[in-house]
């Protein structure tokens, strides 16, 4: 690999940016494709989009031969706002699924090491935590506190930064009031359709554990399925 390409790829990895190194198998030439850039005119556009979704490297065929796509994606993260019962069930499930999980809650009655062992817990306000670890398109946000003072800021930031999944607990009435607050805060209403509310897959979940399964299912679907691919 050329030094300039290697430096660029390492910079993308450090900045949590998705990229694919394309190697032409006939002549060994290489180029770097970034997800944040428009690659719709590329002859491998369809394959590139699929690989960005799956995260899997591999050999592909095209009109003039074959190319190897070496995929570099940031590790997907799940930021859970609220150290509640749902979160207690969701954390180990999400970690098993390969997500890097953080739980944020400033309420010391909920945010305790006994309830959340293992280092995922941040007993601070979301504004402070996200200042040090900003959200990005490879992060999912699930807000489950029912408290606007805690939930609203990370939800709005998730929409602004293009997080791949944004979910919020609450009834449709609660969500309607939430959107009124977001509008008053100057958020573009066009972004509101990206919020999964009520949160999680519609599987009739009732217990905290079942809701956690529903949330994880929605998160994985948002990460892996192309928009409009169906259920």
UniProtKB/TrEMBL annotation:
Give the organism's phylogenetic lineage.
Answer: Bacteria, Pseudomonadati, Pseudomonadota, Alphaproteobacteria, Hyphomicrobiales
State the name under which the record lists this protein: XdhC family protein
Domain XdhC Rossmann intervals:
78-217
- Which Gene3D superfamilies does the UniProt entry name for this protein? NAD(P)-binding Rossmann-like Domain
Per its UniProt entry, which superkingdom is the organism in? Bacteria
């Amino acid at each position: 690999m050329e030094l300039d390409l290697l430096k660029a790829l390492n910079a993308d990895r450090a900045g949590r940016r998705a990229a694919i190194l394309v190697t032409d198998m006939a002549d060994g030439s290489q180029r770097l494709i970034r997800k944040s850039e428009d690659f719709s005119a590329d002859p491998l556009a369809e394959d590139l989009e699929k690989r960005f979704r799956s995260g899997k490297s591999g050999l592909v065929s095209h009109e003039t031969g074959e190319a190897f796509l070496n995929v570099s994606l940031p590790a997907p993260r799940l930021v859970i706002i609220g150290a509640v019962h749902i979160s207690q069930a969701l954390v180990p499930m999400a970690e098993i699924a390969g997500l890097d999980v953080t739980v944020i809650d400033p309420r010391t009655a909920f945010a305790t090491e006994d309830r959340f062992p293992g280092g995922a817990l941040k007993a601070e306000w979301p504004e402070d935590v996200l200042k040090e670890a900003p959200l990005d398109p490879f992060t999912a946000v699930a807000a489950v506190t029912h408290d606007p003072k805690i939930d609203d800021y990370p939800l709005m930031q998730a929409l602004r930064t293009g997080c791949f999944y944004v979910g919020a607990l609450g009834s449709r009435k609660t969500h309607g009031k939430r959107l009124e607050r977001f509008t008053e805060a100057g958020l573009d209403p066009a972004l509101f359709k990206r919020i999964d509310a009520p949160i999680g897959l519609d599987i009739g979940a009732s217990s905290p554990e079942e809701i956690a399964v529903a949330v994880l299912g929605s998160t994985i679907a948002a990460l892996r399925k192309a928009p409009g691919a169906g259920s």
